[in-house]
Amino acid sequence: MSAAPEQNYQAPPPPPPPLPPDAKPRGPHPIKVRYVAIGIFALGLIVVVGGALKFIAGGLTTGGALCFMGVLLALLSLIRLPAIPEQDEPLSFLQKVTGIFYEPSRVFRNLRHHPHWAGAFAVICVLTAIYSFAFVQRITPERIVDYTTSKMSEMGSFAPPPDAMQRIREQQLQQYKNPAERIGGILKQFVGIYVLSCIVAALSLLGILAFGGKINFWQALAVTFYAALPVVIIHKLLGLAILYLKSPDDLHPTLNQETTLQDNLGILFTPADHPVFFVLASFIGITSLYGLWLRAKGLHNGATKASSGAGWGVAITLWVLTLVVALIFTALFPQFIS
């Protein structure tokens, strides 16, 4: 009998080295955000080309804003999501929008594990667009532009010359009356909301770290949007009701552009006589303090690790920073709120 053929035996590869005891799993990248970024950037390029070819009014600035947002989203998609073991299922969009009013702690704790922010951002954008459109229609573009240009002429050495002022007035009227430019203005407003929210989220992240806590950027961004959502809903919906209940002559062309609701101590001061005190008092109101409480609770419950004191410390710091910026602008240009 012939001997059995010799088989080549290969030892299995060695197992991968174990992770160090202090190593922690890393969360995935938000790939969906990257896809959205590509779509927004492509849309921005199309609008830029349309503006350059003169068949989309205001397309250069609108397209540039969209391209900027696409680039920003692409860069943010490089930040990993938090790697936290899921303790509960993600709440539905409706559960979060309703729950943020009567059980905010549960919503923020869920955002800690599932930092979804797009739904809140969409609601804020839609309500902002509806109110802005209604406000311009109610006050009229002519009154808004006349007021703005008249205040610009009161800026002393910073005031544009009369011929430039006339061009500015014509351009502003076109922006309010041309449908393409109106849509472009709303889109740029959306980009501004998102960029400002990212800045607030980044400052919140740094603040929590300074207080010895731990929070991921996406957790901070989700908290930023959902802490602002109830205040925006109240401001825009009640503001719309007041907008049509009051006479347009009783509404301010600039101070009421965000809302007509007056639930703060600013009603105790006349803007023309005491602009700085008016702005300072306007930061002390029912919805402003409600928003401050929501941000503090959101940072406490939405962070991976943050005490209640850390949440309040960061929320109050952001509130003070916003107040200081508003007071500086008011001191430099008091005529715009008179």
Walk me through the structure:
There is one protein chain. It contains twelve helices and no strands. 65% of the residues lie in helices and 0% in strands. The mean pLDDT is 89. It is an all-alpha fold.
Number of helices: 12
Percentage of residues assigned to helices: 55-70%
What distance lies between the first and last C-alpha atoms, to the nearest angstrom?
111 Å
Q: How many whole angstroms does the radius of gyration measure?
A: 26 Å
Percent range for β-strand residues: under 5%
Sheet having the most strands: none
What spatial form do the alpha-carbon principal axes imply? globular
Condensed summary:
The chain is mainly alpha-helical and 338 residues long.
Question: What keywords describe this structure?
Answer:
single chain; 338 residues; 65% helix
What layout of secondary structure does this protein have?
Elements: H1 31-52, H2 59-76, H3 93-102, H4 104-113, H5 118-139, H6 141-152, H7 162-177, H8 179-210, H9 217-245, H10 275-282, H11 286-302, H12 308-332
